[in-house]
Amino acid sequence: MAYRKTPAEIRRLEAAREHLVVCATEVVADVGWAQASVTAVADAAGIAAGSVYQHFSSKSALAVEVFRRAAQREVDVLGDVLEGEGDPADRLRRGVEVFARRALENHGLAYALLAAPAEPAVGAERLAFRRRYRALFAAVIDEGVAADRFPGQDAEITAAALTGAIGEVLVYPLSTSAAQDADLLVAELTAVALRCAGAAP
Amino acid sequence: MAYRKTPAEIRRLEAAREHLVVCATEVVADVGWAQASVTAVADAAGIAAGSVYQHFSSKSALAVEVFRRAAQREVDVLGDVLEGEGDPADRLRRGVEVFARRALENHGLAYALLAAPAEPAVGAERLAFRRRYRALFAAVIDEGVAADRFPGQDAEITAAALTGAIGEVLVYPLSTSAAQDADLLVAELTAVALRCAGAAP
DNA sequence: GGAACCTCTGAATGATGGTTCACTTCTTTC
DNA sequence: GAAAGAAGTGAACCATCATTCAGAGGTTCC
Questions:
Q1: In chain D, which nucleotides are within 7 Å of a protein Cβ?
Q2: pLDDT tens for residues B18-77?
Q3: Centroid of chain to Cα B87
Q4: Where are chain B's structural domains?
Q5: Rounded to 10 degrees, what is the CA torsion of A154, A156, A158, A162?
Q6: Nearest nucleotide by C1' from A45 CA?
Q7: Most B CBs within 10 Å, among A33, A137, A156, A192, to test the B interface
Q8: Given pLDDT bands bounded at 50, 70 and 90, which one contains residue A129?
């Protein structure tokens, strides 16, 4: 009966874990999953490589946590807009817009979430989150179809197409003029997305 | 001067190299890049691991060759249709259709080409081929815009969106009913693609 | 047949990077 | 202050493969 974690100690440990996740996220956004070795991440957090294993059972577990946190934020933001009030077409437009702006603001993280090569565990997580994006888009499209704002269509397929289209445009370098100007890019992307769903021009 | 490769010997070596590439492609389509170790590929081709290095300077070089061959076939087929005769909207429809059918017929290879985690050299190759798909689509879209079949738009962005949309729909498992029926899936996908470009319904 | 040169083999080598662990350092409790 | 136990360290360890290489087995040409 000589040692019990005091509340302050527990908080300190939780903060250390949190700090590790945040630093790992930065490293991943900076250099991608492949380059984010345990040593690199530990260095960034100012701890020894071995100490990572105080907080996570494996590198995979840490990577999954990093992915989940970041991806969940995007799902939440997108969900707030897509499930909000108003005309489905308008919500779709605003959803694409907000998603695109966030991705452009933090391109490294967007790339890591959407496309960067990653270990299988992260790949599985990515798949799960893609399904969630798709479900959010599909719901709006179904609503729009029901309200006669969009033509009849398989909402799941359109939603998948939207997910892919948005990701591709945001993540890969374009040589077009719009690539220089974020506003223009976002405007073109929302226009494509609305056409994709069949919204009246 | 006691040894010069006889034509038959040269042919035999070329055939061996060819056979290796074909077998490697099958392995990759089957199990993905990550699992396609030099040993696995050599086993599939019925040769020793070391013999791979008779034909390729590194595993990367072999992987790049495998990717290029397969991707080039798709670019050729798509290019034939998109650059053919006729109405731009119709060519776009047929292009998406043929691309989709081929991907669905050889799903493993399509996944390997479009999305499967791969080493950096293959990733770079993939990027280059994506640009080529994009260029093909962009040309048709520009034509369609010029011919007033599509509304004004940044063709590069629409083309990127198309590439992403098509890839996403074909490569990731869908839970919708259309996923069961290839014809239905292709029909929905071409419809989305045409809407994406803004073709009149 | 045999000298010269090649292809093929597969076990040994080497690089990379996650994981472990003996040890040090810090916290708690008495 | 000292015992008990936890957190933190970082060098050693280990698994995984790509790559090499010394030897075996062919092929060419005189």
A1: 3-12, 17-22, 26-30
A2: 999 999 999 999 999 999 999 999 999 999 999 999 999 999 999 999 999 999 999 999
A3: 25
A4: 7-197
A5: 170
A6: D8
A7: A192
A8: very high
Instruction: Give phi and psi for B3, each to the nearest 5.
Output: -145, 125
Q: Which of residues 114-153 of B touch A (CB under 8 A)?
A: 117-118, 120, 123, 127, 130, 151, 153
Dmax over CA atoms of chain A, in Å, equals 73
User: Which residues, given as ranges, of chain B have pLDDT below 70?
Assistant: 1-2, 177-179
Q: What are the pLDDT digits (tens) for A32-56?
A: 999 999 999 999 999 999 999 999 9
Phi, psi of A4 (to 5 degrees): -140, 135
According to CATH, what is the number of the domain A7-197? 1.10.357.10
